[in-house]
Amino acid sequence: MPLAAFFAQFASFSFNENQSSHKNFDRLVKVLKCDVKDPQGRIALAREGFKNALVHEFNARFGTDRKNISNWQNLCGVLGIDPVPNSVKKCRKCVWDVHVNLVDLVDSQRTGKPVKLFASLEDLRAYTLHTRNTFPKKTRAYQGGLLREITRTYFRRPGSAKKKERKKKQKAARAAAGGD
Hints:
Number of strands: 2
Oligomer: single chain
Number of helices: 9
Radius of gyration: 20 Å
Order of helices and strands: HHHHHEHEHHH
């Protein structure tokens, strides 16, 4: 599988199938003895490879075709949706109503641990912020349609981009006026 293959390229590292992906990556960083500054960029390269491997792992386990009923039914089964719907549209709605961390979802397939479901999007958001188990969203080149279909952005609050732009303009104005 892609995650195991990613970790296998580091001869001095032993991948633990029963540990979460992020715990394995944290151990890898320690094994490589990468410091925060990392002048050679090893940690950045490893992180990029890790993100790509997570996406490939999802694709390998759940499929990429968002129109394939088998992919959706497999996902519904893993999420404990019972009965499993018999159409893509119904599966999509059921999956969308479930709040699950995608990294934990991928890990559960390898570790055999049950998938943790959350009562609300806010609970999922708080858990994800606490654990830092975020699924890479910038690796869209490798994401299949199914993954794109279920990936959510829940860290950006409505209007935050406008607020950030406004602050940037205010700072530039202060700097131009000599106040910064």
